[in-house]
Amino acid sequence: MSDLKIGVDVPWITSWSEEPQTGVSRCPSVDGQLAISQDIKPGVGEPVFTRAHLFRQRRSVGEMRCPMCGEPTQEDDRWSRTARPTTAGALRAKGLGPALPPAMPDSQPLLDCGAIAPMHRACVDLGPAERLLPDDKTGRELRRFPKAWIIMPMWVEGRPPQPQGKSVAIVSFLQLIGVEGA
Fold it and tell me: Is the whole-model pTM more than 0.85?
């Protein structure tokens, strides 16, 4: 076990070196859909700061858990430094339209948070929380997360080993979109 403390020194969603991906299984984090699975051994080995643990990431977004400490966030204490302003039209142009409500106008302002759920303000202020930011950290301002959001599963194609087998959609991670002004 590492001496590093999860939620203080290492973000809760961080993968550890002893948590390899193990294949595909039905996952409770996405209502039993097929998802990429991974061993669950937080604190064992070394933290891999550049890789989110897939199950914890999906729980973080799906349950609005702080990716730093792993505890649920409250509506009045959700903050994001990964959110990028965008619009429904821009997401539709990138092929992400099927996850958006059809009646949502292209001009609807949104916040694309990527794979990082909002954090508690106290957790944002912890130094290790900066490790949750993508490499292009420049210009990332702290934003209050909106009261409404959309969760988009990011799918990969799985192919069975037999040549005649049909491919299936498998959830890798969840992407989070905040809906401004809702």
Answer: yes
